[in-house]
Amino acid sequence: MSDQPITFYRLQACPFCERVTRTLQDLGVDYRSRFVEPLHSERDVVKRLSGKRTVPAIVDENTGVTMSESANIVDYLQRTYGTNGDEQTGGMRTGGDA
Amino acid sequence: MDLDFDVVDLGPADHPEEGDQAPEFTRPLVTDEYWEDVALSDLVEREDGPTVLVFHPMDGAFPATYVWKEITKRGWHADATVVGLSISTPYAHKDLIEERGLGDDYALYSDPAAAVAEEYDIAHELDGMAGVVEPRPAVFVLDSERTVEYAWVATEWPDFPDYDDVEAQLE
Description:
The structure holds two protein chains of two kinds.
Chain A: E1 6-10, H1 15-27, E2 31-36, H2 44-50, E3 57-60, E4 65-68, H3 70-81
Parallel strand pairs in A: 1-2
Antiparallel strand pairs in A: 1-3, 3-4
Helix pairs in contact in A: 1-3
Chain B: E1 8-9, E2 26-30, E3 34-39, H1 40-46, E4 51-55, H2 62-74, E5 81-86, H3 90-99, E6 107-110, H4 115-119, E7 123-125, E8 133-135, E9 138-142, E10 148-153, E11 156-157, H5 163-170
């Protein structure tokens, strides 16, 4: 379904990241993991991409979407790659604080 | 002057030789900003020019420091893709990258279980550290198809690469 694997910025043992992992796996979406600096203040790579230093964050080259916050990401993945037939109904939402 | 300095003879190793294809592996490759699984076969194709794979003792041991001091001083990154490999964790690699100022010029593979060392037939059981196996010091210069253009593997311990020899391969 996706041509390019989603780039998934994560932190080892972070429960919010595991939630995204589970969703990616449940949906069978290809992804590659990039593990970042545990120290929030040094996560510049994530900040450059999403504007924030929080993880999880994803970059989906297939849709041009970059987003953070696990609830947003799970929602986006289900809408975009879910099998309920309502994919592509959104997905351009970025950021968010949920 | 006889310093009565003993090195340990490690004996010959049945490692990949010039002309062989270096064994494929995928391990976390640590950069100054993150780590991700990278296959050696992908790495060797990333840039034009050779790839230098440097097996070194665990981060924190003085040989790891010496090796990276020398490589950065010589600036090998200008002529090749240069990566290290040790049994240290990605977290320890991040510290080494910072301490040695490797920046984004160099990256380090993490192989805590030493399975890559086993695959290359250069595993070394450390005396006095029960259960700890790491690669012998070794340097392989590879082309974009993983063909070995230069191979050096320590036959005694401790030992260091011949940096001039490696450099001659990069010109």
